[in-house]
Automatic annotation (TrEMBL):
Enzyme class name: transferase
The HAMP domain, residue ranges: 203-255
EC number: 2.7.13.3
CDD domains attached to this UniProt entry: HAMP, HATPase, HisKA
Name of the protein this chain belongs to: histidine kinase
Principal cellular location given in the protein's record: membrane
Catalysis: reaction(s): ATP + protein L-histidine = ADP + protein N-phospho-L-histidine
Species of origin: Streptomyces boncukensis
SUPFAM superfamilies recorded: ATPase domain of HSP90 chaperone/DNA topoisomerase II/histidine kinase, HAMP domain-like, Homodimeric domain of signal transducing histidine kinase
Cited Pfam families: HAMP, HATPase_c, HisKA
GO annotations of cellular component type: plasma membrane
Domain Histidine kinase positions: 270-483
Subcellular location, record wording: Cell membrane
């Protein structure tokens, strides 16, 4: 089932909230207007009906005898019905809480509350009721007289006669329905008109936001000269100024870091270059001394000292060579002398050259031809480094596996040691990084894996580190797979 996805952009939300606010304002205004207009219509009808009924009673009541009989009350109700005119009266009358006398049918029953209220107040009252699905207005008016059997001579003396008149409010209901229709018809144009300022406001708000987004994208792409023109005095302008300040600070920091990095690289290259010549002489001399120590003509203590000097000289020479190689990679001057070769052959030569082909700790799994176009010396450095690390820091057996997979040549070196700790895994290819801080002295320079990764990248390949399930650390070298060709005899 496909789920509907509604836009969630800031523009859509601004327009929607603006339209909701417009709709709420329009509905609130329409509601208040409708309420006032409805009240005005009903009050006008009520006042008109009360005035008409009072006028009719003023003309008809003087001719009524007291106390009136039921026939007199029915005759009065009949005359009031005929005199109702446009109101279509349905009249009835009662005297001294006697029975209610009416001359017509179809009128709603009089509410008891209305009869009680007019008796208690002694003045005209009204009430709206529902009858047969139609709204009705019911009026109750007591009649006073100026003379009678027990007249006191005072005006507005209650006579005991109460007249009731009711009529339907069909015309008023139609007028109110017309108000509702007009309000509903006006809501749609109001929303349509509200859409124009909503789009305009959204554009004004989102324009600086878009500029900030484009600026952030350029800044993330490395364009640290990016600046955005700040116009206005609102919060978005303050945000733009903050963005420009951040970009300027980043540019300054980046320039300082580049200067320091270039200085450190130049220093390492200069030191390695200056050490290379004296180390070559030291290595030559220690080679002669090694021969004297091996001949047995020197005292044992002197032989041990000579061997120590020879080992440290070779270690220092390897470190200087690694530093020189790193400086070449940093300068982009590392040469690549690629040849068409079988990766299995190169791995076999590497293992044989270092005596690992006869080592029970190392197992080679070389199945099927794996043609590559690579520099033999650099690939040899990568393989030797990975196998040597596996033997030093892992546990045997160390398995070297070469396969052609998914159009790539893949070489994996797996050991059965404890593996690489998760906190260390992201840093294994960093220069001079050592997982064990207490291990201040080691055979390597701390540059082996970094150089291995640089050599892999130079070939357009990758070098990754991880942990194999149930085994130990696993390093994977991938290189582009070259088309296979028949070697000349």
């Amino acid at each position: 089932m496909t789920r509907l996805r509604f836009p969630r952009g800031l523009r859509v939300r601004l327009v929607v909230w603006f339209l909701l606010a417009t709709a709420f304002g329009a509905l609130l205004t329409a509601g208040l207007t409708f309420h006032r207009a409805r009240s005005a219509i009903l009050e006008r009808t009520q006042h008109s009906a009360v005035a008409d009924l009072r006028g009719q009673l003023d003309s008809l009541a003087p001719g009524l005898r007291f106390p009136p009989t039921r026939a007199d009350l029915r005759a009065l109700a009949r005359r009031l019905d005929r005199a109702g005119g446009s109101h279509s009266w349905h009249s009835s009358a009662t005297y001294d809480d006697g029975p209610l006398v009416s001359a017509s049918r179809g009128a709603p029953a009089l509410p008891r509350e209305l009869r009680r209220t007019v008796r208690d107040r002694g003045q005209a009252v009204h009430q709206r009721v529902e009858h047969n699905g139609r709204p009705w207005l019911v009026l109750a008016m007591p009649v006073a007289y100026a003379g009678g059997p027990d007249a006191s001579g005072k005006a507005d003396t209650p006579s005991g006669l109460t007249v009731y008149a009711s009529f339907p409010l069909d015309e008023e209901r139609a007028d109110i329905a017309a108000l509702v229709t007009a309000a509903q018809s006006g809501a749609v144009p109001a929303l349509a008109l509200g859409l124009v300022p909503a789009l305009f406001a959204a554009r004004l708000v989102l324009r600086p936001v878009r500029r900030l987004r484009h600026g952030a994208e350029r800044l993330a792409a490395g364009d640290l000269d990016t600046r955005i023109e700040a116009r206005g005095r609102d919060e978005l302008t303050d945000l733009t100024r903050s963005f420009n300040t951040m970009a300027a600070t980043l540019q300054q920091d980046d320039a300082e870091l580049r200067r320091l990095e270039a200085g450190s690289r130049r220093f390492a290259a200069d030191v390695a270059h200056e050490l290379r010549t004296p180390l070559a002489a030291m290595t030559a001399v220690t080679g002669v001394l090694d021969e004297d120590a091996a001949s047995g003509t020197l005292p044992p203590d002197t032989c041990d000292a000579l061997r120590l000097i020879s080992d440290e000289s070779r270690t220092l020479a390897r470190m200087v060579e690694d530093l020189m190689e790193v400086s070449r990679f940093d300068a982009g001057a590392a040469p690549l002398r690629a040849e068409h070769m079988d990766l299995r052959t190169l791995v076999s030569k590497t293992l044989q050259l270092r005596g690992w082909d006869a080592d029970e700790r190392v197992t080679a799994d070389l199945a099927g031809p794996v043609p590559v176009h690579a520099d033999p010396r650099r690939v040899d450095v990568v393989v030797a480094n990975l196998v040597g690390n596996a033997l030093r820091h892992g546990r045997p057996p160390v398995t070297v596996r070469v396969r052609a997979e998914d159009g790539r040549a893949a070489l994996t070196v797996t050991d059965h040691g404890p593996g690489i700790p998760d906190p260390v895994l992201p840093h294994v290819f960093e220069r001079f990084y050592k997982a064990d801080a207490a291990r201040t002295r080691s055979e390597g320079s701390g540059l082996g894996l970094a150089l291995a990764q640089e050599n892999a990248l130079l070939h357009g390949g990758t070098l990754t580190a991880g942990n194999a399930p149930g085994a130990g650390a696993v390093f994977t070298l991938t290189l582009p797979l070259a088309p296979s060709r028949q070697e000349p005899r």
